[in-house]
Amino acid sequence: MKFRCIFAVCLVLAAAGVSNAKSEETEYYAVFMDGNKIGHAVRSRITTEGKVTTSQETSVQVNRADVPTKVVTTETSIETTDGKPLGFKVVQNSGDMTASLSGTVDELWIVNVTATSMGQERKKSFGWPSGAVMSEGLRLLQLEKGLSEGLKYSAKIFYPGSMQAVETEMQIGPKRNVDLLGRVAALTEVKTIIRVPGGGEVVSTSYVDANSDTKKSIAPMAGTQIEMVACTKEFALGKDDVLELVDKMFLASPEPLNNIESAKSAAYYLKPNSQATKLVIPSSDNQSVEQLKEGGVIVTVRPVAAPTGAKFPYEGKDSNTLEAMKPTRFVQSDYNDIIELAKRAVGETKDAAEAVKKIESFVSGYIENKGLSVGYASAAEVAASKTGDCTEFAVLTAAMCRAVGIPARIVTGLVYTKTFGNKENVFGGHAWVEAYVGDKWIGLDATRAPKGFDAGHIALAIGNGEPTDFLNLAATLGQFKIDKVVIDTGKTQAPNP
Predict the structure, then answer these.
(1) pTM here?
(2) What burial class does residue 52 get, using C-beta atoms within 10 Å of its C-beta: 0-12 exposed, 13-18 middle, 19+ buried?
(3) pLDDT the model gives residue 494
C-alpha cells in the first residue's frame, strides 16, 4: 500500500546541496530522519585530463511495518573543467533489484542514453535542456555568484537520476553558528527552491563554508525532515538506527467513510498546517480542485466511468497523450515479456474500456508476493519477480496498457482505508494508474481490484513514475490535514417531514 517514499529520499538528498570537494578528495555525510541515523552519503570530485568527475553515493534504510527497506543510489556526472556536460551514470540498487542508466552528451548537445534493467538495454536520444548544468557547472555558478546575504539567482539543474532539468532558485541567507554533530561552525545559509515539474515547490536549506562546500542540509520529507551532516568516515559508515516509516505515511480521516467505494463523489477539505504553505494539487478527469481564500483547498474526487466502444491503439495527435504511450526506464512497455503479458491479459477484445479492466484484473492476480521489501522496481523487474506493493502494481499496469497502445500514466497520492495494522480510518500514501479511454482518463487500481479506483483516492502528483513524481508527493504529504469530507452517494434523500 505504501509508495516508495524511501526512493524519493535519495533524490531529495541529491538535490540538497553540491559538494565542492577538492581534486581527489572525498567527503562523508551522515543522513538523519527524525533524529535517527538512517544512512550515509559519500561525495567526491576528481579532476583529471581536463575532466571533472563528481559522484555521490547515497545509502538509506528504514523499516516499513517492521520490514527493512534499503536503497543505494550512486549518481556520477562527468563535465569539462568549465562546466560543459560530457556524460553521467546512475546505478540504483533496491533490494534484490539493480538498474543502471548512463548517458553521453555529444558536440551537438545530443544526449545518448542507455538504460539497463533485468539484463535488457534500452537506448534513447534527446536534446540537452538549454542552459542546464550538472554538478561542476553548478559549482562554478555558485563560486561566481558568491555568498552575499540577500542574493538571489536561478539555475536549471539537470539531475541524471531523473533525466530532467529542474528550475531552481538559490537564496543566500545570513551566517549562522551551525551544530555539526557537536562541532559548531560559522556557515552561510542557502535556501534552494526546487520547482517540481507539474507540481509545487520543494524548499531545502543548506549551510556552506566560505568555499561553498555543503556541511549540512535539511529537506522536507513526508511531514518530517531529512538532514545530511558532514562528519568523519567512521561515523558516516557506522551503525544506523532503526526508524519505522509507516507512521509518516498516514493522515487521519475526520470521520469513518462508510461505503466510499460506491460513492458518486467525495469532497475533501484540505487545510495547510501553516499559512506559508501553498498546496499545489493536480486536476484531472477524476478530480477537480478549488482554491479557498484562506489557503485551503477543496479536492472533489468524482470517478469517471470508462466509455464503451472506444478502440485501441490510440491514434490521436495530442502531445501529452502520445507521451503517455512511450516506454520509459520504469515503464518498459517495449519489453517482450511485458508485451506478452499484455496480450495474455487483453485477449481478443477490441474495446479499450474492457481491455484496461482486464489488465487491472490480470495485474491484481499476477503479483503474488505483496510485500514491502522492494525499494522501487521497474515494470520489467516486477514482471520477472511478481513482487511488490502499490508502486509495483502501478508501473506494471501502466506498462501493459502502453504495450497494447492505450496511453497510461502513474498517479501518486492518498487512499482511504478502514484499517491498516493498528490504524483505523486513515489515508495512506498510494500509487495507481490513469488510462486514456475514448476521451477520458480512467482510474485503475490493481491493488484494490475488483473494486479498483474509487472516490477514496486523492491524487497529489501525476506522471510517468519517475523519481520527481514521488518527490512532489513526499514534499506535500505532512503539509496539510483533511478537515472535512462531504460524500455524495448519488441517492436521492427523502425530504424532512
Answers:
(1) 0.80
(2) buried
(3) 41
